[in-house]
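hey m, so remember when u said the tokens were messed up on ur end? i reran from scratch. heres the input so u can diff it against urs
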Amino acid sequence: MSDAPRPARPRVTLPDPRSATLISLATIAALLLLWWLATERRWLPPLFLPHPFVVAERLWDGFHTPIGDATLDGHIALSLFRVLSAFGLACLTAIPIGIAMGVSRLARGVFDPPIEFYRPLPPLAYLPLVVIWFGIEEASKVVLIYLACFAPLALAARAGVRSVAPEQVNAALSLGASRWQLIRHVVLPAAMPEILTGMRIALGFGWTTLVAAEMVAANVGVGQMVLNASNFLRTDLVVMGIVVIGAFAYLFDLLMRLAERRLVPWKGRA
């Protein structure tokens, strides 16, 4: 056999996140430029695609002139209250239940069937039932968003618990850790990456469900504002509302990414 050294394998490196950010900014700029060209050259009539400057003007005016029953900041504030309150309640209940499902067969047997039953259902399918039970006030919207956030949070917490390495559990038990200490100091930190991913997904589900709920049973809110504008063929307001909805969804995602980097800096590292 030859004693010649084997060629070293090329080292695989992950792309620099800063380069991805630059590409994202360039993509946004290109899309805005294409939008401006399409409206400036009259490729599409204003009824189908309003000029970006018109949309920006409606955005500015919306903070000073009421759109329907409230100004734009009023619509945004009420929408944020609905989704964040429901998301907070879901975190307080779904994460402990998910952890319990991961460590206890009894808890999994109790909670797994109802969660798996309603999880595939679109929220609009049971929205009429929620309205009948809780009325058309804020409670029905919060409950609907809560249910949309609950399932992904509980399942993510359960998956995080099941991903804990047995060596970690055995090491803690060999040192005399109690069941509560095992969950607090071993299971919960190990499951935190999965839990944060579930929070990120659940917040997106909650924001999407919020817009749908406001389109059905609300007088004030970003979704209701878009629906009213579409009824009067106000495409400029519709596009403005879509921009606002997408901007807040992207902001939520950025905040959750920042939380992941701060709380679980070891995620994705060998």
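this time it looks ok to me. Residues 52-263 form a domain with the MetI-like fold fold (CATH 1.10.3720.10). if urs says something different then somethings off w ur setup not the seq
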